[in-house]
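Lesson 9: reading folded outputs for more than one chain in a single document. The general rule is that every protein is listed as its sequence immediately followed by its structure tokens, and records are never interleaved. Here is the first one.
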Amino acid sequence: MPLYLSRFSYTPETWARLINHPEDRAKAAQSYIESVGGKLHGFWYAFGLRDGYNLWEAPDNVSMAAVALAISGGGALSSFETTVLLSIDETMDALRKAGQVQYRPPGA
């Protein structure tokens, strides 16, 4: 199954709610991905540009998109971005296929 890396930030209101009622949001994230047949591999909070990161496994892009849309539509986040991660083998396949693409730079 494909892996996905999500980066998110909470709204100030969400942080205020969590301060007043601390909650392990990894459990919630796990239930969301499991509802589409996936798995949560990790949930981390961080300092910096984003408040946290998730590593997910999902059956396909549509399943992951469904989870991302549900989370994004919930209103608790100010940002949510997801990146599809490629394995080394997938990257090697892509590199071999790239050699077959007849790319022409603009103006060439």
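And here is the second record, again sequence then tokens.
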Amino acid sequence: MSRTSTDRQPHTPFLSRPGVRRLTPFVLITAIALVFIFENRADVEIRLLIPEVTMPLWGALLIAWGLGMLACALTVRRRRDRHTKRRGL
């Protein structure tokens, strides 16, 4: 069966799509965080409970940012799983 011009769905602008609108703040915050991280290149001493580590500040900031992203992803995933289980009951 061929499609006619009346079978088409209306075109949704790219920035009006729900997925794009939800992803835009994440992309902006990530870009700003990465610029901040890579602009701080000085060596710092960091105390990790007992040992003291000397490393570039950008490395420490990048590790902290990565752990924060991991924690966020796990939280969102757990919340999504919890909501799908409720709907199934």
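What the second record shows: The two ends are 40 Å apart (CA to CA).
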